[in-house]
Here is the input.
Amino acid sequence: MVNTNDLYDMTQEELKVPTMAEMMAQGQQPEVLFWVGCSGSFDDRAKRITKAFVRILNRANVPFAVLGTEEGCTGDPAKRAGNEFLFQMQAMMNIQVLDGYEVKKIVTACPHCFNTIKNEYPGLGGKYEVVHHTEFLKSLLDDGRLSIEGGQFKGKKITFHDPCYLGRANNVYEAPRDLIQKLDAELVEMKRSRRNGLCCGAGGAQMFKEPEAGDKDVNVERTEEALETQPEIIAAGCPFCNTMLTDGVKAKDREADVKVLDVAELIANAQDL
Here is the structure.
């Protein structure tokens, strides 16, 4: 089960993270359920992405809630690794919880969770409107609920890595790029981008195993392509991609001059949230 207690390391006034159980007890229904995901709950690096997104939701006054300890893994790693039985068991448990709370709309910062709930759950009876956090942030911007200024990123050279389950699997390419350009940053594209983008190396449950023998790790290959654009920042929209690209930057000894940040972190930092 996913534990989001680490989100409470700031005061309640600074970081408001209600659970569905709490809202239900008050007779309220949130506008959107924020699906945190395993990585966003337990991985120390990914927790910073979760907190950045929550700060933005708080700033935009979006009524949202999380499942907290009632949230389980979507089953994506199990399915991609070939364990269909475990996937269906995990999925059905989540669907039961979501339907119990009458959830209609879900937003998540993990493309793996996004793809699985959006495309795999309907076949098991779980039908919801599912959006990636970059799509949701773009909608907040378009509706005037959120404003973005360049801030510390104005004029900086940023390249964006397309997560496989966001881009090729679901055709979401423009939302993250639109957000980066709103920061008045210089968006530079890698040779392989959008539909032709290269995987970071973590998809298909590869995140959880050692790489197989070869001449070069996939994440290093992708990081080299990113570094060819001479960026100050490599932007990502997936916690798995973030980990792989960060490891790639370390492998190339470029930690001092190149940062790997999620799009939500870019916006939160620009707004000093």
